[in-house]
User: What shape does this take?
Amino acid sequence: MSTIYVLGATGFTGQLICRELQKAGLSFWAVGRAEARLEALQQVFGKRFAATLTTRTMSDFAHLAPELRDGDILINAVGPYLQLGPTFLQPLLRRRVQYLDLTGEQAFVQWMMREHKIGCWPSGVVQACAFESFFADLMAERLLREQGACLRVETAYLTLPPRPSPGTKATMRQSQEAATWRLKRGELESATERTGRLIQVEGWPEVEALWPVPFPEVLFLARRARAQWAESYFMGTRAHVDTMRAVHDSRSSVKVADGALPPPARGIFSDPFDDRWAEVRYAILAAVYESPTSIRGHGLVLSGRDPYFATAVVAAECAQALLKRTEPISGYFTPAEAFSDEIFERIVRAAGAELRVQRVESSL
Assistant: This one.
């Protein structure tokens, strides 16, 4: 049977993924740099579920390669992804493993698509298996199948209150240094303007699309040639615009050289399973429009609480789906290419989320 490895298991989201794997009765290797925290994880989950492997630098993750067998599953929770992934991933993905990550970075997805194609790697790769782009990609694909030929697709995200984790903040700052891509007339172009516009969803308070953001589903839609126009946005009410803007506009980013890493983070809370995130509400909108200039469209809205719990559910359920396959996947896949509607609906239920169809109206 394939072995599951959780890379970055001592981080906040990594610990939640370990918990979801244990709840599913799956054993795993917890891989990270903080030996004491790995030992604590093993005490929480027990040796029946969790074996541990300590790494000292990012390059040490690559030392896993000789241990990997065909079909083994790597869940990569080590971010920011573009900053850290290229330092250790290539030797791992040259093996016939099945790789999942949680990235929301367009630039890292572009790097992975390019390297996987150039290197002709035998691994199977599915990126963005987190609560945002995983849901958005599958929701957009479902709408496109149901509505037929729609030219424009938009995805948008709302969290109340806006409370990104330290790792998410670092990723947002890092993403500011790379281009934000949107799809226009079938071609990717840089989206630099940040002019707000309104999106009205039936049953919602009025929200504003703050500015384009670099979420991967735009690249996934372009790869599958499923739309001529596509863009992704952060949304918010005026009450929390300033908070999100301050995080996104920060130009400071942590520069990490391999071999000179700072001490491992303690995590967000001293207890990794603190429930203070449970009151954070999130909503994801995927909408399709009949033309680039149409302001009315059909949408799917997914809403729930605790986005980090939802991310852990997505990662664990995707790993289980890969384990059930008769053959390991090989090649590069978007979430909508790799996973069926049945798996999507099971994840929605497991995350305690609600999915509904809505009419959407937006300004241009």
Notes: The two ends are 52 Å apart (CA to CA).
